[in-house]
Specification:
single chain, 14 helices, alpha/beta, Nucleotidyltransferase, domain 5, 3 domains, 412 residues
Length: 412
Amino acid sequence: MRLDMRTKRKLTEVTATRYRRASKKGKGKILDEFCQNTGYNRKYALHILCNWGLTQWVKLEGKNLKLKAQTPKKSRKPGGGRPPTYGMAEIQALRRIWEFFDYQCGKLLAPFIRLAMGFLQKDKSFGITEPIKKKLLCISAATIDRRLRGHKKKLWARGRSTTKPGKLLKSQIPVRTFFSWDERKPGFFEMDCVSHCADSSYGQFCSTLCLTDVFSGWVELASLINRAHSWVKKAIQQIKDHLPFPLRGLDGDNGGEFINTQLLLWCRQNNVQLTRGRSYRKNDNCFVEQKNGDVVRKAVGHHRYDTPEEAQALCELYSFLCPLTNYFYPSIKIIGKTRLASGKVKKHYDRPKTPFQRLLESDDISVTVKEELKRRAAELNPIALKRLQDAALQKLLWLHSRKGPGVPEPQG
């Protein structure tokens, strides 16, 4: 027998009170019986039994308002719960370190703090006492990100691509699309140029030559007044002479600064393997592309630098930034990929290490080179390097501000 709407409402009114007072098993039996009698969908029946008589529409000042009766929420008493592990003193010290060393994420800042704690504690500006030191040495990456979440303000900016293709020697330079896991040995670098032209690529402007070791993440930077072939070759020669381990290979994009006779002959004379990526495939040079933003843009921004004085200031800044990045800043490296049954690819990463640490652990680096690396590392102080880098950056920005706003318009 099918019930009419009036009967269903009366039945709902009687059942709702009984339903709310019943136990969990009792509610299930009542719900089954109610659905059988009314023919309601189980979800709909559950909804009306829980809310019957608790909501009411009233008209107030010409507006229809829905009133719902609820059990008053109990306010939480102050205190109680687990006491915080890290107090205000620890978080303030953590924030000073985070701001001083370029706002690194928790996964990189946590190992950096453990690596550089000896230097940090000696410097009074960070205010690290012995109790604060013990807690900072134990703090996790997740806790760092959570406690600094309110202070993080990231500004994203995009630069311009000024890569101009070089076509004449492409047939003589082999294409490398990726480095397989067993090929990643120290000394094989990806290279790229970062343009400091701001929003206009008109006229002459400075560039930064960025070389990144695929195995360790070691970064070498050189300032160029322009992208002439001779300047690029000279910068690579200087990097090779200064590098503490052998330069075995260079892999660049298809820009004319890398696809030219001068660089090709230099590589053949110095037994350096020269390869290139595919056109319009930025991911072929993914290691150096990542450092372009994380190291170069993060340090000098997206301003236009186009004078010899600014090029020299960039060179001075990189002389402090490179050792700081290579010896003290940890980075995370992908070590493998596996394809899951669902078809998705799962990436595997090693624990955060500095390029210096990865080179010391490599079996392809000689004992003599490792001793030289240790000697250079012993002469460095990360806090002193960072202060010198900040001073060089202030000088660069001062030179930039002296030129005044605007870029000269092209004539004709």
